[in-house]
Design brief:
- Helix content is 22%, strand content 27%.
- The strands form 2 sheets. It has a 4-stranded antiparallel beta sheet with strand order 1-2-3-4. A 3-stranded antiparallel beta sheet has the order 5-7-6, covered by helices on one side.
- β2 (53-59) and β3 form a beta hairpin.
- The chain has 5 helices and 7 strands, in the order βααβββαβαββα.
């Protein structure tokens, strides 16, 4: 079943907070967000900045996952941080919805939306795991000498970056004839 994507609004910060649990594998290591308070950086006050951008996916009438970008500061000490102009991507998908294309669908849409605001996005990925190949498949490249440790369990992570497309996103509300862009 193809997911339905929605913009993640500030009033839906709870979705981002809930998806942190899956984005940082807390479900796999038996921890909660209270065990790893530094993860708050990725969702706390989401949407209060005009540069916060995100999506969530519904599948089978359930929230299946979410992907969002935040501009962080160097003193946030966040994994994935490159500079104050490059937003950090967080993406989490519930286990029962993994490997069916939901992450790819969210990323592709997020690339289009983010390209209007940013030149690049970054993400912190476990050095050994499926996520590394997933992000490579979507055009992310490893940043040289960017190794660090996961705040969750100390596993080795690497920062990856993606150059974003600069295409204009066309929507029916832009005053265009919708038949032209739907063909």
């Amino acid at each position: 079943m193809k997911p339905t994507l929605y913009f993640l609004r500030s009033s839906e910060q709870k979705i981002a907070t809930d998806m942190l649990h899956y984005a940082y594998r807390l479900d796999e290591v038996g921890k909660t967000l209270k065990d790893v308070m530094e993860l708050e950086t990725y969702s706390k006050f989401y949407g209060l900045s005009s540069k916060d951008l995100g999506l969530y996916a519904l599948s089978e009438h359930k929230i299946a996952g979410a992907a969002w970008l935040r501009l962080l500061r160097e003193d946030d000490n966040a994994n994935g941080f490159i500079d104050e102009k490059t937003p950090v991507l967080t993406i989490g998908i519930k286990p029962e919805f993994r490997a069916i294309g939901i992450g790819s669908a969210m990323l592709e849409q997020l690339f289009l939306e983010a390209g209007a605001l940013f030149e690049y996005m970054s993400v912190s990925v476990l050095k050994s795991g499926k996520a590394l190949s997933f992000f490579k498949k979507h055009g992310f490249v490893e940043v040289e000498n960017s190794f660090g440790k996961s705040p969750v369990d100390g596993s080795e992570v690497v920062i990856m970056v993606k150059e974003l497309p600069k295409e204009r996103v066309v929507r029916p509300s832009d005053g265009y004839d919708s038949r032209k862009w739907m063909d």
